[in-house]
Amino acid sequence: xxxxxxxxxxSVRDAELENLFSPYGEVTSANVIIERxxxxxxxxxxxxxxxxxxxxxxxxxxxxxxxxxxxxxxNEAKPREDxxxxxxxx
Length: 90
Prior knowledge:
Number of strands: 6
Structural class: alpha+beta
Distance between the termini: 39 Å
Order of helices and strands: EHEEHEEE
CATH class: Alpha Beta
CATH superfamily: RRM (RNA recognition motif) domain
CATH architecture: 2-Layer Sandwich
Strand order of the largest sheet: 2-3-1-6
Oligomer: single chain
Radius of gyration: 14 Å
Helix content: 10-25%
Number of domains: 1
């Protein structure tokens, strides 16, 4: 199950995100989304857990949990919507 994690502190990186979810079960991937131009976190990421039961428990336990003064928003990730192509920046 793919999980969306929003309102992350900007200091959190992939390993810390994985460590946050690992007490609830196996984590197959944990990725904080990074802005290309500045190499800074965008404040959200995704975690994948193979066990649906473990993933649901992690969502229930971590949603609204405060990390470094920020309340996390944790829920099942929605499928990515097709978006129109972006115009190139000049």
